[in-house]
């Protein structure tokens, strides 16, 4: 049934399985297609070329299809749909846990954003990550993953999957290509998993090189691109699958929980298979009203990302001059600055997240408290991509699932403050608020030495 339910932005479906030669060839092809007609792939251009759905009565925005189930005119049509002869690619729908027109529209936009054949949107980022890994691995198989990951993903790989599925993970320093290569067990390792820019340390993954290593051994590369939509296009650098927490930058309003899996049509369709599909059977269904909301926000994502990135670079540069230990890949002294410069989509900067290492949790909390309660610069809250600046001490919040040793290996300092830089107000207005708080903090004996 699922094989005909394509959500492609192109007409060709990728093969379900490839040998090593095919994998290496596919990586080279993806790298080559990153440049088309002499121009580098631009997510905004891809989005503008995506299919536009009009409303039921001619509205410029598509209608929300809130129905759970769908009627047919002839009994034979229903049989043909369940037999896989008719599907959403021809506007035949059965049940909204399977496919829904409004969610399908958002999925097409996500595929355009990441430059993939297909995508499917889910009820949360973690459901997208879990479904992708479960679809690509079976009991007794193996994952190689970055040591530095979002805490929920780390817990999934460390505790949940080994206990429930006997799927094990080896964690590696993702910047050490040789270590990654050695961790891959041929015939057993099925997935190499990492984040484009790591949460929370802001290390940059060498996606092209990691893909070459993985594909040489027949391993599927899954990249979490939540931190850098528009900024980095992993599939155009060789990756196979991209996952997102749409709750963050793509939503932009800190009011929606959602996720997405973007990749080959063959994979996305297999995830919707009636008998073996991880999304179909586990049921992390997105509400069509949520899908409609998100589809209206994606068109201005590029404008938002540019301003997030612009302000993050300005604030990082100025904070560094004030003597703070700032981590931001847009700064020339960041160890991965040149790497990011070579792989990012230059129009969108270096991302909207920066970190300040205050060394101890006490100092980190003091800084955040002053920034929020004295300077009115931002809010102490987890998540990212909001129009206001959000701050959290990662070690005791979003990375709290890691134990002390794992935090050390991941490079997460007890006093690491992760800051998602917002764009509300003018840049100088927000800088004055930040500087006011920092000045008061220093008066009370909390200078930070670079």
UniProtKB/TrEMBL annotation:
Swiss-Prot/TrEMBL cofactor(s): pyridoxal 5'-phosphate
Residues covered by region (Disordered): 1-27
InterPro entries: Cys/Met-Metab_PyrdxlP-dep_enz, PyrdxlP-dep_Trfase, PyrdxlP-dep_Trfase_major, PyrdxlP-dep_Trfase_small
GO-annotated cellular components: cytoplasm
Highest taxon above the source species: Eukaryota
Assigned EC number: 4.4.1.11
Family that this chain belongs to: Belongs to the trans-sulfuration enzymes family.
UniProt-recorded name of the protein: Cystathionine beta-lyase/cystathionine gamma-synthase
Annotated organism of origin: Medicago truncatula (Barrel medic)
